[in-house]
Design brief:
heterodimer; A: 696 residues; alpha+beta; Penicillin-binding protein 2a (Domain 2); 2 domains; five-stranded mixed sheet; 28 helices; 19 strands; 16% strand; elongated; B: 370 residues; globular
Chain lengths: 696, 370
């Protein structure tokens, strides 16, 4: 140890010479290390700039250039005269992309201040962000004025994830009137993006069709997105535009619908829950297909807010259901012309009469006529225009159900039509085979009797009724159509003899113009006659309510089918008023709509007068209701679940209990016509209590 | 004779080093011109002006006698340590860390001045140390204290980069002074043990983070790793001949952080490509090679240690900066000599350069000034 220690101490012999030597040696080492590092740096640099040049060039380029898709302008939907039902309007919009936001709460608060959003708006925005997938843009506001738009634009560098854009948004000029017909658009959902990986779906501002025609024609309406390449700084400021590729707008689709009639029909429904279909009975063009109350597709396109949802789901008039296609109702007496036609075809002489004393015994039950006092001697024409039930009870038993059901099918009842719509409920035309299959029970005589007056198992939708009216009017197999200018060859004949049709036409004309059940359905023109048929369908048994007053839900449905001019039919129309209290609620709507069809000014005058009492147009009433809701509930409304809307639109068909008894027909409106006060103003709502839209 | 003095004074300048250096400074000015978006202000003009001013200063330093250097060594060192303490005190009073003194005319960063000063004081120390004691504790401990005190003060500022530069210059000087090799080997061994410990205890969070991000820049592409990534993109995208003067997108669109100071080399590479980079490396090789040559030719222990230490200090700047911008070292705030915009680093480097030029003069006038 000691030796070792000494050796360590003593060992180095240090002098100026050895130090000089070691300096020389060591400076060479240092120099070599420096040179080595120099070579290392040079080769590293060569590696970066030569061998990895491509990679880094690309990265520099992707730093510098920002490619953004410009959402394509959606194709327009035009009416038959070229008037837009759905168009685009230029607007300023702000979106956020949740994934890119650094401090979401602060950003949203800041946006709320800049855009002056209400607490309700902020709540809805938060809901949308919670629901959205990170990469998908969420709309904050559209239709901004330049001032607020630029207020956000200048602060963009401080608010990552916020996107401002000048673009186009969908615009429905007539708002709620076309809600169910056209549908609405909205930001693509995650499922939609999974199905169709088109990057345009997650472009801020791009909307896909969510319902009805907008959904069906999504592919055609979409168009091709444009692109914009811009040079941006690290903080996202745009330095200059590099190039722009214009978008290719989607196709324009021309519908058979007449915008004026559609809007008029929707507005004329007023506060009722009703459906109106107007068709050209020569070729099947659907001129109007209105279901009210409706939603405003303009306000749906930014997502459905909590308050909006509460407002719609609270409404017992089911504004989310398209009653034209999804509403099923017992057709009531509107089937009588059809039944009469089947009688004639089965060989019944229309002049053969039966005595109506107010009822008819079938088996051990008495089936009443709606007119308890009886109609006296009734032939086929009187059976139709006076809507005598006993006439049909009597002869239906002789002819049997099968010819009636066959004729119903030929006239379009129970059919689903080839139309670009998201769903049709096609209802039931009952016959013995059907009942056996469905309930395992034999067809009874009272089933036939019920069916001949459009009760029992009979269920139709308003579109089928309009088709029925068209086929009755034209004698041809008219198919409804919505797209203009397709397949213009004349429809084949029904195969019903012309004299049968003429007889039915005359009887239907007498409903309004002769001694019929709806004298007030007459058109206010001396030279144009309307031919129609009333119908009142019971909703509940007489033991629950009489169908006129009482609970709204228990009132009878009102029906009216008609065509005009009676001699040379052009237009066919069907009206269903849910729980309208009887056909008296339905035919004034049909009459006024057809008045408008023939004379727009006259029609509008009537409507203007009516809307004064109703509190304005549907749009105005909807807005007023929204204001009332926002005052009442504020931000307290519950959140909307994602598929609640879809569910609401597809409400199941009404239950069909087994009918085992006679159904008493509801009174036809000429009874009411006897009361002078009630019909002095024929267009007044049948039940005053109903005019507020909320019977409770 | 008086007539021939002026041309002789000029002819005696080390032009083989000065001309490439001027070229480098001009390239630096061009890059700064481009980084300013195509303007002499605010970087390029002041860069050139400073270089000229400091070059005059360097030539004046080079005319200083060896004895003056020897006499000044300890007072200069002591003065700068006092300044370092002063900075700490002012910083403590003012709240927060401070690295500079405001002299009214300019801000002075004493830690920068310490880099040449440490070389100077160590050269003086080893000159006066009896040769036989070089290998004993008396050759080590005082030198260690001379390095440790300023390094510690700079470390607590905190300025890790400068502290490392001071230590590096000092250690290289000690190494060249002939201290036993096994001391350095065992110190390096000890360092390898201590470094991980220091990493987790001594370093500040941001410093630790920088090291971690250096090891894996992609882990934080938008945070600290951003600097390294963007710098590599700038260098790599330049290719062999660069994107052309004024066409660098990384710097002009602000993707590159600090395009005119720490990352000036990346700015340059983007526009001048590999050729520009090799030119810069070549100039540094010439300047530093000349420095080492001067040190080797120096007649005595003091001048050779002085020249070699000054060269090592400059080398440290170049090495760390270039390794950083190429992604070979963590981000440390050390500028590139003669190219980065900034007065203090230019001053330090020109003092080093002036010192080497002085030694060069002593070599030429061998014996006459002794």
């Amino acid at each position: 140890m000691k030796i070792d220690f000494r050796r360590w101490i003593r060992q180095p012999h240090v002098s100026a010479g050895t130090l000089r030597n070691s300096f020389d040696r060591r400076s060479v080492v240092i120099g070599a290390i420096q040179g080595g590092i120099g070579v290392l740096l040079a080769s590293r640099m060569t590696y970066l700039s030569v061998f990895e040049n491509e990679k880094y060039k690309l990265e520099a380029e992707s730093n510098r250039v920002n490619l953004s898709l410009v959402p394509p302008r959606r194709g327009w939907l035009l009416d038959r005269h070229g008037q837009p039902l759905a168009s685009n309007r230029a607007d300023f919009r702000v979106d956020v992309i949740p994934e890119q936001m650094k401090d979401a709460d602060r950003t949203i608060a800041e946006l709320g201040k800049l855009l002056s959003l209400s607490p309700i708006d902020l709540q809805d925005l938060q809901d949308k962000i919670d629901k959205a997938h990170g990469f998908a843009p969420v709309e904050v506001a559209t239709g901004l004025d330049l001032e607020r738009f630029s207020a956000v634009s200048v602060r963009l560098p401080d608010m990552p994830g916020v996107v401002t854009q000048r673009g186009f948004s969908r615009f429905y000029p007539t708002g709620p009137s076309v809600g169910h017909l056209i549908g609405y658009v909205g930001a693509a959902s995650a499922e939609e993006y999974e199905k169709d990986h088109d990057p345009v779906l997650i472009t801020p501002g791009y909307k896909v069709g969510k319902d009805a025609l907008e959904k069906i024609f999504e592919k055609e309406l979409r168009g091709k997105p444009g692109a914009r390449r811009v040079e941006v700084t690290a903080s996202g400021r745009i330095v200059r535009n590099l190039d722009t590729r214009e978008d290719v707008p989607g196709q324009t689709i021309k519908l058979t619908v007449d915008a004026g009639i559609q809007d008029y029909a929707a507005r004329r429904i007023g506060p009722e829950s009703a459906a109106v279909v107007v068709m050209d009975c020569r070729n099947g063009d659907v001129l109007a297909m209105a279901s009210m109350p409706s939603y405003d597709p303009n306000s749906f396109s930014d997502g459905i807010g909590r308050l909006e949802w509460k407002m719609l789901s609270d409404d017992d008039h089911v504004p989310l259901r398209n009653k034209v296609l999804r509403g099923l109702y017992p057709p009531g007496s509107t089937v009588k012309p059809m039944v009469a036609l089947s009688f004639m075809e089965a060989g019944l002489d229309p002049d053969e009469s039966v005595f109506c004393g107010g009822g008819l015994r079938v088996g051990n039950r008495v089936f009443h006529c709606w007119q308890r006092r009886g109609h006296g001697s009734v032939n086929m024409a009187k059976g139709i225009y006076q809507s005598c039930d006993v006439y049909f009870y009597h002869f239906a038993q002789r002819i049997g159900m099968d010819p009636i059901a066959a004729m119903a099918g030929r006239l379009g009842l129970g059919h689903e039509f080839e139309l670009p719509v998201v769903g049709q409920s096609y209802g039931t035309v009952p016959n013995p085979a059907w009942k056996l299959k469905k309930y395992g029970k034999e067809w009874q005589t009272f089933d036939t009797v019920n069916a001949t007056i459009g009760q029992g198992y009979f269920l139709v939708n308003p579109l089928q009724q309009a088709v029925q009216a068209s086929r009755l009017a034209s004698g041809r197999i008219i198919m409804p159509r919505l797209i203009h200018g397709r397949d213009d060859k004349p429809a084949p004949s029904l195969g019903v003899p012309a004299e049968h049709l003429a007889y039915i036409h005359q009887a239907m004309s007498d409903v309004a113009n002769g001694p019929g059940s709806a004298p007030h359905a007459r058109l206010p023109f001396p030279d144009i006659k309307l031919a129609g048929k009333t119908g009142t369908a019971q909703v509940v048994g007489l033991n629950i309510g009489n169908g006129k007053g009482g609970q709204w839900k228990h009132r009878d449905h009102g029906h009216f089918i008609c065509f005009a001019p009676a001699e040379n039919p052009i237009y066919a129309c069907s009206v269903v008023v849910e729980h309208g209290g009887g056909s008296g609620a339905a035919y004034p709507i049909a009459r006024d709509v057809l008045t408008y069809v023939f004379d727009k000014q006259k029609g509008m005058d009537i409507l203007t007068e009516l809307e004064k009492n109703w509190g304005g147009t549907p749009q105005e009433r909807l807005d007023a209701r929204y204001r009332a809701y926002s005052a009442q509930y504020g931000v307290g409304a519950p959140a909307v679940s994602p598929d609640a809307v879809q569910q609401a639109e597809t409400v199941p068909e009404p239950r069909q209990p087994i009918v085992s008894d006679a159904q008493s027909p509801a009174p036809e409106p000429d009874a009411a016509a006897n009361a002078p006060a009630g019909t002095a103003s024929p267009v007044a709502p049948v039940t005053p209590g109903n005019s507020g839209g909320n019977p409770q | 004779m008086s007539r021939s003095i002026v041309p002789e004074a000029i002819s005696r300048q080390p032009w083989q080093m000065l001309i490439p250096l001027c070229g480098l400074v001009c390239l630096g000015a061009a890059v700064l011109y481009s980084a300013a978006g195509g303007g002499l202000q605010p970087y390029a003009l002041s860069h050139v002006v400073r270089f000229c001013v400091f070059l005059v200063m360097a030539i004046m330093i080079s005319h200083t006698t060896r004895n003056l250097f020897r006499l000044a060594a300890y007072p200069v060192y002591g003065g700068i340590v006092v300044l370092l303490v002063l900075v700490e005190l002012i910083g403590a009073v003012g709240g927060g860390s401070q690295r500079w003194l405001n002299l009214g005319v300019m801000t002075l960063q004493p830690s920068e001045l310490m880099k040449p000063a440490i070389v100077l004081v160590l050269a003086r120390f080893y000159e006066t140390l009896p040769h036989a004691m070089t290998a004993s504790w008396r050759g080590l401990v005082p030198a260690g204290v001379l390095i440790g005190v300023p390094a510690l003060f700079v470390m607590i500022q905190p300025d890790l980069g400068t502290a490392l530069a001071i230590c590096f210059g000092g250690v290289v000087t000690m190494f060249l002074a002939g201290l036993p090799l096994w001391w350095f080997v065992s110190a390096a061994g000890a360092l390898m043990v201590i470094a991980p410990l220091a990493f987790f205890t001594l370093l500040h969070d941001y410093q630790r983070n920088r090291v971690l991000v250096f090891l894996d820049p992609e882990s934080d592409p938008l945070g600290t790793g951003y600097h390294i990534t963007q710098s590599k993109i700038a260098i790599g995208s330049g290719g062999i001949f660069g994107k052309g003067f004024g066409n660098g997108t990384q710097s002009h669109l602000q993707y590159l952080p600090e395009p005119h100071t720490d990352f000036v080399f990346a700015t340059m590479s983007e526009e001048w490509g590999l050729m520009g980079g090799l030119f810069v490396l070549a100039v540094f090789a010439i300047v530093l090679g000349w420095g080492m040559g001067v040190a080797r030719r120096a007649p005595d222990r003091f001048s050779s240690l002085l020249a070699a230490g000054a060269t090592a200090t400059m080398f440290f700047y170049v090495m760390i900066n270039l390794m950083m911008v190429m992604g070979l070292a963590p981000v440390v705030g050390i500028p590139l000599p003669f190219m980065s915009h900034g007065g203090t680093s230019m001053l330090t480097n020109m003092i080093c350069l002036g010192t080497i030029m002085a030694v060069n003069r002593w070599n030429q006038g061998r014996g006459s000034l002794r």
